[in-house]
Design brief:
With 371 residues, the chain is α/β, with parallel strands linked by helices. Helix content is 38%, strand content 16%. It has a five-stranded parallel β-sheet with strand order 6-5-4-7-10, sandwiched between helices. Strands 2-1-3 form a three-stranded antiparallel β-sheet, covered by helices on one side. A three-stranded antiparallel β-sheet has the order 8-9-13, with helices on one face.
Length: 371
Amino acid sequence: MNLMEHPYFKNGYYRVGNQVFSSKLLALMAGSQSNIHPEWIFNNNIFDAVDWTKEPALDIDSLYLNRASAIREKYDYVVLMYSGGADSHNVLKTFLRNNLRIDEIVTTWSVEAAKKYVGDPTDRSAANYLAEWNYLLEPQLKYIATHYPDIKITVVDSTTDIANNCYCEEDFFLFDHFHNLPGMNRWPALVRKLKEIGDQHPNSIMLTGVDKPQFNYDKNQLHLFFIDMTTAIKSQEGVNIEYFYWSADAVNIVKKQCHMVLQYFKNNPELKPMLTNRNDALLRIINTVVYPTTFDPERFQSGKQKYMLFNDQQKWAWNLTQFQDGSYVDRWSSQIANFNLIINDRFKRYKDGLFDGYHGFLTKDYFIGNL
């Protein structure tokens, strides 16, 4: 079969020997059984042929405009999955400032929990992650509703699903990464809504802001790579997912972003060591560089989490006693234990001695240039 015609495969897939999987968990199980290490395939036939050392001549905002215009011309109904973060916000502003229509914005958040556990707006730690709804996302959605009333806004609240979920085996296969309590309810609930929208609008596209470039920096060389951890939401029947940046149709955007970052660190050589650690400080620099007209570092945004499963962003989810007795935690833990019995230890991540999900899979490195 032509793998690229399958709706999943433009968003990445896994190969274990002569077997092909859209599900990472199935690939890990097959790899454990066959003792073959899975390979993640992400548009290799396109990206491997690109000369990443050549910077596109067009400025970055023109490239964003070209991408948005092509999407608008191709599809009858454009949906933006909007988190308020730098990536999706840049997509939103690209459409709006160029008078390109967005038909619907869909966002998912634990809204009820955010209202209960909201913290101080001066607290930008990962522990205050829920407050992004109160201080960033909700105000932005209200602004859009006021100034762009033709855009339909849909909010999916995942709060009660966390406690009410049965956490059966099927739930874990609905999502490839971040099998934490909020993630397993937030993202599948979003996909169900997208499926509903896709059924109503056959020629539709669901845009997501995946992602900023990922870099390896070694021996004064800058390399780009792609990682499967950010591509968890995939196309399926009735849901046509498009990564705005990480797409075979957006190669020039990624190339331009890489060369903008390369030039920034050439101009600021004392900061080159920052490239060895993808932390909040580096992400702030990259956001500033690649989203020059839309990124505002003063907008409220919490820090990134250190852990995948048990992290500060989601500690509120382990004690939702206002809904029930907390037995949902036992159900979740039991299913994690079942998967770990059949998935080889070499695929498991541990941080500070604690199981923290499964390793990410990377593409090859693509050489950008010397610093």
